[in-house]
């Protein structure tokens, strides 16, 4: 209604009557304009220079009607204007539309938009896409027009799908060659993005040769490093330098959980779903029902029950880059049947069982400091909960509550910052389910399920207490079950299945179907209507696996990098540009990795000058 229009926006010679209260309520920009005391605030007229009136009309229509028209080629203009005017309701809708249509042709532009307008969703989404398609994109003409800040952010990213740091150097070199006079002075800054400890000796020589083609001589600093040292100094592997594979840890049958049997074993198999290949991990002492967790390229096994019936305190780490196990400081308390989770560079051993009976205690292990510390005990002793980390909290969903002799109808949430536990009620009992953290929450899969409180009896098996279910559900932060995200039911009821995520999909492996063990592998991704069965069974031979599984996703380095990680020879850890007056022969002498003239290096951060 015209009488409610008390402001006018002017763009391209066209006038747009508006309500200043509405504009101020959705835009910090207009709130400042109309409360500033300047001319625009007094007379209500705001001149918007260099703005397409059709784009402004589209955005104003959205503010009044909720309808936004996306025509061909207009979405980027809409984003620019909405960002300039700080129209907060429109930006998420526009950025989502742009990310759904990202391609090799526009991803550099979208990254630049996100970077220039400081928009995290567009910036991070485009950066991930750039990383996955880096081999194609650094050849694109738009790559040469990136500004220095955006280029450094891209070349520093962990998400680049490159197999060698040489690809990162060559991208930087191509950008410099496009405008050598202006850009050669910043080459030194770009070299800080290169993770030199991840280069082989052959690649180092190639890099030096290519630098000389730019009339630059590299001055390298060297240090003897093992695999762990290379990772620490460089800052870690890029996304393209490793594959993600599923590690299956096979553990005893349910009827052997509280007794010792000759059938007790625990062995680990590495499965690559993309190729179907299977490899065994190096052997480790056999224990039953250990804790299992993973942190990037490291797999951790804690506690368990020995064949002689005793309980273990041990913590072992498998490093996929070195392909070997090492023993770390032991837990303060022997544990088996415990929850074992990773969150923010710490491992958490929660509850469990040992000779003294069920445990309420919990402890955490600092991976960097290699020290165990006690944490707050659980308010309820639980076993066989679906457990998962999400953000800064640990979630234990359902389970066997020994202290009350009932199946627990609730969720325990541990805040890793506050060292406190919170209980959230559930409307049902759940026991032996699997839980997998995802970007927006936690997917809970299968288990024994009932809406009634079920008493436990010592002479009855778990499968007789509750019906096995195929139900799955999605849980958001604070234990809120989502009604917006629908996870389809499994093809059949399953409990005690192994579950993990890989490349955006959830894999469910093995488990118990009612009272029988199961051998199939299923996967599902958000947006898919049903679970898909993997072509092969767990054993690969179609035989029944009389085991329950735990599964994690482990980063495994590509063969070349794996070999490099086991090399302890000298490696470049920092680089500078040599004084052009020095001869090439002198540089070779002074900076050879075994030069007796080279003084020992102090601590250096990855790739920093």
Automatic annotation (TrEMBL):
Pfam families: BACK, BTB. Residues 585-609 are annotated as: Disordered. The keyword 4Fe-4S does not apply. InterPro entries: BACK (IPR011705), BTB-kelch_protein (IPR017096), BTB/POZ_dom (IPR000210), Kelch-typ_b-propeller (IPR015915), Kelch_1 (IPR006652), SKP1/BTB/POZ_sf (IPR011333). Residues 5-72 form the BTB domain. PROSITE patterns: BTB. Keywords: Kelch repeat, Repeat. The keyword Lipoprotein does not apply. This is Kelch-like protein 6. The gene is LOC103049655.
């Amino acid at each position: 209604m015209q009488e409610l229009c008390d402001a006018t926006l002017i763009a391209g010679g066209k006038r747009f009557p508006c309500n200043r209260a509405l504009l101020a309520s959705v835009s910090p920009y207009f709130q400042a304009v109309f409360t500033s005391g300047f001319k625009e605030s007094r007379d209500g007229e705001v001149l918007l220079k260099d703005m397409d009136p059709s784009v402004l009309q589209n955005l104003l229509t959205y503010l009044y009607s909720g309808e936004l028209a996306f025509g061909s080629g207009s979405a980027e203009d809409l984003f620019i204007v909405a960002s300039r005017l700080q129209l907060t309701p429109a930006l998420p809708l526009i950025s989502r539309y742009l990310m759904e249509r990202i391609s090799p042709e526009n991803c550099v532009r979208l990254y630049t938009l996100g970077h220039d307008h400081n928009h995290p969703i567009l910036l991070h989404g485009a950066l991930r896409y750039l990383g996955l398609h880096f081999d194609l994109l650094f050849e694109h003409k738009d790559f040469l027009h990136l500004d220095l800040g955006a280029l450094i952010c891209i070349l520093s990213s962990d998400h680049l799908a490159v197999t060698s740091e040489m690809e990162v150097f060559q991208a930087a070199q191509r950008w410099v060659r496009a405008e050598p006079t202006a850009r050669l002075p910043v080459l030194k800054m770009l070299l800080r993005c290169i993770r030199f400890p991840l280069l082989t000796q052959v690649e180092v020589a190639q890099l030096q040769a290519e630098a000389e083609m730019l009339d630059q001589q590299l001055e390298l600093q060297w240090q003897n490093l093992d695999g762990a040292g290379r990772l620490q100094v460089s800052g870690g592997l890029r996304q393209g330098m490793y594959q993600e594979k599923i590690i299956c840890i096979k553990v005893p049958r349910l009827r052997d959980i509280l007794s010792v049997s000759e059938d007790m074993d625990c062995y680990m198999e590495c499965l690559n779903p993309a190729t179907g290949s299977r490899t065994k991990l190096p052997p480790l002492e056999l224990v039953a029902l250990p804790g299992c967790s993973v942190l990037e390229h490291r797999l951790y096994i804690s506690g368990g029950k020995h064949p002689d019936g005793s309980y273990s305190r041990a913590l072992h780490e498998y490093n996929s880059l070195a392909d070997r196990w090492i023993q770390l400081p032991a837990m303060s308390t022997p544990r088996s049947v415990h929850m074992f989770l990773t969150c923010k560079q710490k491992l958490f051993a929660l509850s469990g069982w040992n000779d003294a009976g069920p445990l309420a205690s919990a402890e955490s292990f600092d991976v960097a400091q290699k020290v165990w510390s006690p944490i707050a005990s659980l308010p309820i002793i639980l076993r066989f909960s679906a457990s998962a980390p999400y953000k800064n909290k640990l979630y234990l969903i359902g389970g066997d509550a020994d202290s009350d002799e009932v199946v627990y109808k609730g969720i325990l949430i541990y805040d890793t910052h506050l060292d406190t536990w919170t209980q959230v009620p559930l409307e049902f009992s759940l026991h032996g389910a699997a839980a997998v953290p995802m970007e927006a929450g936690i997917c809970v899969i299968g288990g024994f399920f009932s809406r009634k409180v079920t008493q436990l009896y010592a002479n009855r098996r778990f499968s007789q207490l509750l019906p096995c279910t195929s139900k799955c559900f999605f849980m958001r932060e604070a234990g809120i079950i989502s009604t917006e995200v629908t996870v389809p039911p499994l093809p059949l009821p399953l409990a005690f299945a192994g579950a993990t995520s890989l490349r955006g999909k959830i894999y469910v492996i093995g488990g118990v179907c009612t009272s029988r063990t199961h051998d199939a592998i299923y996967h599902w991704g958000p947006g898919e209507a049903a679970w898909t069965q993997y072509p092969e069974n767990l054993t690969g031979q179609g035989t029944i696996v009389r085991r329950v599984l735990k599964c994690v996703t482990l980063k495994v380095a590509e063969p070349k990098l794996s070999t490099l990680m086991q090399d302890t020879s000298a490696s470049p850890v920092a680089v500078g540009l040599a004084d052009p007056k020095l001869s090439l022969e002198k540089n070779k002498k002074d900076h050879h990795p075994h030069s007796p003239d080279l003084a020992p290096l102090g601590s250096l951060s990855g790739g920093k000058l």
